[in-house]
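Bit of a strange request maybe. I'm writing a small parser for structure token strings and I need a real example to test against, not something I typed by hand. Could someone generate the tokens for this chain?
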Amino acid sequence: MGAVTALTQTLLLLVVLAALALVLRWAFGNDRHGVPDHTGEDFGLLVEVAVLPTAEAAEVLAKRLRDAGIRVTVARRGAGHRLLVFPADVPDAKLLLRP
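Reply from user aminoacidic:
Good idea to test on real output. This should exercise your parser:
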């Protein structure tokens, strides 16, 4: 009788571990990571609305956008400074930055 109980416990343990592995695979195994951007040109959700030659010019325009309630990020890439905003703010940002 003791051998049957040990065998039953072992099988139950294997079934529980297999079920746990399946649940973990379902919960964490479908994570699709994008290819990392090694060029520095991918800003995720942010959209570029202007490229300026100097940091001072970028900060002046960024302050104008912030004063209007638009969240803005200034990113330096190469010789230029980019103003980046969320997609919902692009029309308003372009309107404010229009000369």
